[in-house]
Design goal:
By secondary structure, the chain is α+β, with helices and mostly antiparallel strands. It is built from eight helices and 19 strands. The protein has helices at about 5-15, 25-35, 90-110, 160-170, 195-210, 210-220, 265-270, 300-315, and strands at about 40-45, 45-50, 60, 75-80, 115, 120, 125, 135-140, 145-150, 155-160, 175-180, 220-230, 235-245, 245-250, 270-275, 290-295, 325, 330-335, 335-340.
């Protein structure tokens, strides 16, 4: 197991390294020399680098066809350095990610960006790691250091500073927050709001499935209100998605909905009385009468929870998927300003 001190040393070394703008083979060979590591040659289309770290060999990832849009001039996209290899279970992976994140924060300060990638990133689409795709990024003028979830464990990834921002603006998924005092705002991707109930349910399910693990991994709590456009109403609060420490809760507020979605009918839909569950800390408890304890890392029955939200919204009178909207107050989480392109919902 790598020590916190060694994590700090690797992060500092990567952040202080110099690499040429084009990331040519000469540039990245020079980077390896600076780091005191060993160039081990090509394997499976990537260049292996022997680091001596417990996570195994690092790799230089070449710019493939998918990445050419956001890395048009580079030969290599990034240097990915595995840090450690915890047990594969979601909780173990998230806890180890958090340990590494805290160590890097001690030497580099608060990350410029924090969030989760969803099923895609600058290097392309991947279903892994299945437990979640959290990241933190420390941005400099020419390079950025990202801590991200790799297939086997946390990785420290050195990239050109412009690559991730360009990818996110064109094809960003998941969610991302930027430090409020950053010099310029993060350009948000233009997503099309989902117009089909099944697609909305799938999108919600994918977002909720990994949220407890990503919250534990990054330390970034979530409180996302969902409002519904109802006949004759201005758009009352219907649901609240709350995730803090390592647990996800979904609340339901019935006050403005018809009888078919209230009282015993809400219970029949699948909601539990708030009074039957352990209380939440006051700052996370909005007083909604109905709640579901959706579980922790690797435990969320996300398809069922998403189906419950959609089913309830429709019975409550929300006539179309675009009538379910995320509240703009979810954007403000401490010192970060967030966006949720992975939800593909209108914001009100």
């Amino acid at each position: 197991m790598i020590t916190n001190e060694d994590i700090e040393a690797v992060a500092r070394k990567l952040m202080n390294a110099f690499v040429g703008l084009r990331w040519t083979e000469d540039d990245v060979r020079g980077l390896v020399d600076q780091l005191g590591w060993e160039w081990a040659g090509e394997s499976d289309g990537r260049v292996r680098v022997v680091t001596g770290l417990p996570g195994g060999d690092a790799v230089f990832v070449p710019v493939g066809a998918a990445a050419r849009a956001w890395a048009p001039l580079q030969e290599y996209l990034e240097l990915a350095v595995p840090v450690s290899r915890p047990a594969p279970e979601a909780r173990a992976q998230a806890e180890e990610f958090r340990r590494v994140a805290d160590a890097v924060r001690r030497v580099l300060g608060d990350a410029t960006y924090v969030g989760a990638h969803g099923f895609a990133g600058p290097s392309g689409w991947s279903p892994e790691p299945y437990w979640g795709r959290p990241f933190l990024r420390w941005h400099q003028e020419r390079t950025a250091l990202e801590l991200r979830a790799g297939v086997a464990g946390p990785e420290l990834v050195l990239q050109s500073s412009e690559v991730w921002e360009s990818w996110y603006a064109q094809a960003g998924q998941g969610f991302a927050g930027v430090l409020a005092d950053r010099g310029h705002p993060l350009e948000q991707p233009r997503w099309e709001n989902i117009g089909d109930w099944e697609q909305l349910q799938n999108s919600l399910g994918a977002f909720l499935r990994t949220l407890p693990a990503e919250t534990l991994a990054t330390g970034l709590t979530q409180s996302i209100p969902l409002y519904g456009l109802l006949p004759g109403e201005a758009g009352p609060l219907l649901f609240g998605i709350t995730c803090f420490e390592d647990r996800l809760y979904v609340d339901y507020t019935e006050y403005c909905v018809p009888e078919a979605a209230r009282g015993d009918n809400a219970a029949a839909l699948g909601w539990t009385s708030r009074n039957a569950l352990p209380p939440l800390p006051a700052r996370f408890d909005g007083g909604a009468p109905w709640r579901v304890d959706a579980g922790g890392p690797g435990e969320v029955a996300s398809s069922e929870i998403a189906a419950l939200i959609v089913r309830t919204a429709r019975i409550a009178g929300v006539e179309s998927p675009t009538g379910l909207m995320s509240g703009g107050e979810a954007m403000y989480r401490g010192q970060y300003r967030l966006a949720f392109p992975g939800l593909a919902m209108p914001t009100c």
